Amino acid sequence: MNAPDKFAQLLSLTREPFPASRKIYVPGQIHAGIRVPMREVALSNGESATLYDTSGPYTDPTADINVRRGLEAMRTPWIDARGDTEIYTGRAAQAVDDGVRRAGQPQASTAPPGGGEVREATSVGENSRREDRTDPSDPEVQRIAALRAQAAGLQRTPRRAKAGANVSQMHYARRGIITPEMEYIALRENSKREWMAEYLSDAERNQRLRGNPMGAQLPEFVTPEFVRDEVARGRAIIPANINHPEVEPMVIGRNFLVKINANIGNSAVTSSIEEEVEKLVWAIRWGADNVMDLSTGKNIHTTRDWIIRNSPVPIGTVPIYQALEKVGGVAEDLSWEIYRDTLIEQAEQGVDYFTIHAGVRLPFIPMTAKRRTGIVSRGGSILAKWCMSHHKENFLYTHFEDICEIMKAYDVSFSLGDGLRPGSGADANDEAQFAELRTLGELTKIAWKHDVQTMIEGPGHVPMHMIQANMEEQLKHCHEAPFYTLGPLTIDIAPGYDHISSAIGAAMIGWYGTAMLCYVTPKEHLGLPDRNDVKQGIIAYKIAAHAADVAKGHPTSRARDEALSKARFEFRWHDQFNLSLDPDTAREFHDETLPKEVSKVAHFCSMCGPKFCSMKISQEVREFAARQGLDEAAALAQGMQAKSAEFRDGGSEIYIPIQKL
Amino acid sequence: MNAPDKFAQLLSLTREPFPASRKIYVPGQIHAGIRVPMREVALSNGESATLYDTSGPYTDPTADINVRRGLEAMRTPWIDARGDTEIYTGRAAQAVDDGVRRAGQPQASTAPPGGGEVREATSVGENSRREDRTDPSDPEVQRIAALRAQAAGLQRTPRRAKAGANVSQMHYARRGIITPEMEYIALRENSKREWMAEYLSDAERNQRLRGNPMGAQLPEFVTPEFVRDEVARGRAIIPANINHPEVEPMVIGRNFLVKINANIGNSAVTSSIEEEVEKLVWAIRWGADNVMDLSTGKNIHTTRDWIIRNSPVPIGTVPIYQALEKVGGVAEDLSWEIYRDTLIEQAEQGVDYFTIHAGVRLPFIPMTAKRRTGIVSRGGSILAKWCMSHHKENFLYTHFEDICEIMKAYDVSFSLGDGLRPGSGADANDEAQFAELRTLGELTKIAWKHDVQTMIEGPGHVPMHMIQANMEEQLKHCHEAPFYTLGPLTIDIAPGYDHISSAIGAAMIGWYGTAMLCYVTPKEHLGLPDRNDVKQGIIAYKIAAHAADVAKGHPTSRARDEALSKARFEFRWHDQFNLSLDPDTAREFHDETLPKEVSKVAHFCSMCGPKFCSMKISQEVREFAARQGLDEAAALAQGMQAKSAEFRDGGSEIYIPIQKL
């Protein structure tokens, strides 16, 4: 590698393993070649815990990472072995793919993701176009050219289904085939159970803490067959384009762990392609299960190459964004042909799921006229504009079966977009929103007819008491296809803190049955999230997803809570940090008050100070309980009588003399 | 004032009014002398909004603030007029009140608030005692001596009920008296309704968005009689000690707006008395409805004088903390006499409510022996220790009626403490917790027999699916006395972010019926919150409380959401900021991307950029809807036919040429 290497420099920030953690790989049984990565945390008391790990090879010090080469194509042997695909000469690259203007066309939009709203508004963008640079002596021109050349080298020759074949995981599942992806997912969802026995063996606690799955059917242990069956039923999807062999398979479904999505996206002004890859690595480090690349403007194709080739998590896109670029930002000029070309372009690159706003039907558009905040989805606005201009039905709706043909040739999953989602609590659960939702249900049936995997996008802005109706309507009209919601934000008055206002709604709807939660960052509605905003959004959503998992009753989730609580109670500070969602911040906050290393092994905390110890009192409680017994104590409750203060004789001072520590 | 004046310097930070805001005062009708402060926000479109305002006179530029004199004693004429109190020579100050050691005693604890847990652990503390300074030439000794002398000047001569009288608001309410406090509260809860008409007049929206009060009985309009009735029933309390005439009356009850509490507390090492007052002013600026002073250690009495005399919000304390200081930190040496002396000391100072852990009964202590995290409440630990040492019932329980006699002589409210609350999800809703809760219900009946106002404290750490049971049990066993919960935290693995993990639980339990939410800061479990942590905790809890209010159906809450949403949709950026919970942060985040003033009035946002405008599209939708009508559009849905593209003729480009802006 050439020095100084910007990538190496950037990636050095996020390649280090989490503290006290090592990557372990759990082998498959049906499919021997499978190696499922997990993070094993070594605890200071000799125990360990194994955690679900989204960070990919980046946190494995033994992995040979080279972003110019891309990640290892782990799934290629699996795909090859199925014998139903062919390698072919893909669509020829076009200048317009990267936003280069065609003669006579209006200037292409460089509007970054987002129509002023949420899911499509949380990635980095720009506000004004830079001059198109063409001077070959310009270092920036040289840099972009070099990146493109390298990306062209990164791009794999595409693969597609052989004529008549269908390569979707749903298609295999429905034929009774347990793919390596399915076994991989089963192992991943289960985590290792050995260390959890201590936390999950108490009968009283199991009864008292048993989850309320709200209709979900969670197995005690996920088998590969269970994964197959859920995918076959359409209740879960495995986003895994055959042209994204680098992906570590994961599942999105109500009967599995709740997942989260983070949005990234390029901006010619405020970020570079390299930075987008770094943002990807950063996002998965903190727990993003999926990433949507919402890039627009220049270098959109090249950016996607870099992201997909270096991503161990599924990548989703909103293809209408790039299609709009190709027609110079004029929505009326969009056509099925241009859109179809974009779908194939992105499917060949390896995009795992497409947000497709096929439910924004012409007759629903007037239903938004009386709204407080109109249409706030960028995709929804573009399609509404097209429909109104032509006075025609949405071409994504009329060409839906054509789209299915493309999806099943690459195993791209549908994420049926909610272009009419509410942009304020005032518009929640209105006629337009639910009319679109019902249409998404109709489209789901069509997709399933083609064995195309499908999930359904949901809102948005919804007050707490109206959230459950969203889940119920979705289950009812969309036939249990996985729900994928943005938040929802429960109030409107918290700009600057909408990661919190939406984490409340996300936790609730996750509990009610939503399979994946699209994050919201603190910059929502206000500006472009930076690196720290991305992390804040992800952590808030890991909290929401974990809260939902605990409420539903996932045993692995409760075990992690209990392991951390035990460490907390026993003043094992390092273990408390290392089992938390963000060990760095936990440690830093602790060190602000008690920086010395000795304080991390001392039996006190900054709240109590060295002379007061709740743990010691609790030990005394245990001795007291053992000596007195519950029955006698209960008897005492009736008629109190003074007893000999034998307990006091034990030198039971509440403050431990400091010299004893 | 002497310059440089540290107070003036500190307070200058937080005395400025919120942007575009002015303090208005709404007059009473029954009680003409009443002036209820509200914050009126002037909007850029000529409209205005009136918001509930906790910030007190500090944000009124016309108020003459002098922290050495204290706030105006607004309520004194009201109290005088009742003619049932007498001014008397209070309890003589003792050196031990401020933590000065008695000869032969162990060193007093300087443990700051918190038993390693939550409510009692969120204020500033210290970990090691400074040397007791006595050298009169030491500037620090001089400073403290001066503060004490000034505080002694601040302290009002105490007032108490005349012999046989009961001065509690509940007592008046039960005799049918509408006090000025009650009318004040009615006006405050209603806010001004004129500006809300626009947001609350649409029948479809009112029907669709109607709240789900979960059994609460919210009036459309709060009358003084309604306040009286709720207080008489015990469903609401008005914390307002007759020795805290500076308080701006507020109500805590399920049928009113959800309130929040912030904790502060001194630490001889890390903060000064002046800083505590500044922290109070900072906390109420961001919306704390109540503040608990959890000071311990040195200067505890003096600190409280400064805080109460300068506080427009009710102040709560945990008297056992100071009592423990008086016995040198040895829990076994606590006695009813020392505790009683402390109650009187604090009641004379003007504390509005006492957390009293009278439900930590001896027979319940063994029930905690098998817990994952034992007893985590500091107060609970202290009393468990006392009970075990003496093998006697908790003296707060056995002397409960004696305590009632003190409470009703000053109108101090009970906050019956949950000393056995769970410290982890694993311990949620267990036998110990609910045994204590039932006891608090018994004690509530005793308190009500004395017409003493009472609220009930609740957990703590509770997974989402177990939260509602807490509310149901509390309603069932505590006879609808207001519930006051700490969070609850929904998961255990988020140290560093527990303001978020707990805001989720707080929003839910607030919706279910909790009347006041005790905040949690990001430093929970880890360290001592600084000024920014206090703000972060408060904003997270304002979000939770507002989300609960919206879900319950408070019209004023929805109106604020709608006003901000309208401003957002119309690109009135300044209005969006100024109607938000934290205008400073919203503006700052926006300015990071688009700093120029012109961009705040431009019709675009950083997500869309100047060439794409969702508002313009929505305007087109309205025109489209008007032209086509819903019926025709619906007919179109059946059989699509190409129509003339008349709409297109309107020059309906999706991107507005930048020169038009």
Automatic annotation (TrEMBL), chains A, B:
UniProt key word Coiled coil: no
GO CC aspect terms: cytosol
Co-factor: note: Binds 1 [4Fe-4S] cluster per subunit. The cluster is coordinated with 3 cysteines and an exchangeable S-adenosyl-L-methionine.
Reaction(s) this enzyme catalyzes, per UniProt: 5-amino-1-(5-phospho-beta-D-ribosyl)imidazole + S-adenosyl-L-methionine = 4-amino-2-methyl-5-(phosphooxymethyl)pyrimidine + CO + 5'-deoxyadenosine + formate + L-methionine + 3 H(+)
Residue sites binding substrate per the record: 263, 292, 321, 357, 377-379, 418-421, 457, 484
Cofactor(s) named in the record: [4Fe-4S] cluster
Residues binding [4Fe-4S] cluster, per UniProt: 605, 608, 613
Residue ranges occupied by any ThiC-associated domain in the UniProt entry: 17-86
Biological processes, Gene Ontology terms: thiamine biosynthetic process; thiamine diphosphate biosynthetic process
Pathway linked to the protein: Cofactor biosynthesis; thiamine diphosphate biosynthesis
Biased composition (Basic and acidic residues): 127-136
EC number: 4.1.99.17
Assigned keywords, A-Z: 4Fe-4S, Iron, Iron-sulfur, Lyase, Metal-binding, S-adenosyl-L-methionine, Thiamine biosynthesis, Zinc
PANTHER family assigned: PHOSPHOMETHYLPYRIMIDINE SYNTHASE, CHLOROPLASTIC, THIAMINE BIOSYNTHESIS PROTEIN THIC
Protein family per UniProt: Belongs to the ThiC family.
Function: Catalyzes the synthesis of the hydroxymethylpyrimidine phosphate (HMP-P) moiety of thiamine from aminoimidazole ribotide (AIR) in a radical S-adenosyl-L-methionine (SAM)-dependent reaction.
Subunit structure and binding partners: Homodimer.
Protein name: Phosphomethylpyrimidine synthase
Species annotation: Polaromonas eurypsychrophila
Gene name of this polypeptide: thiC
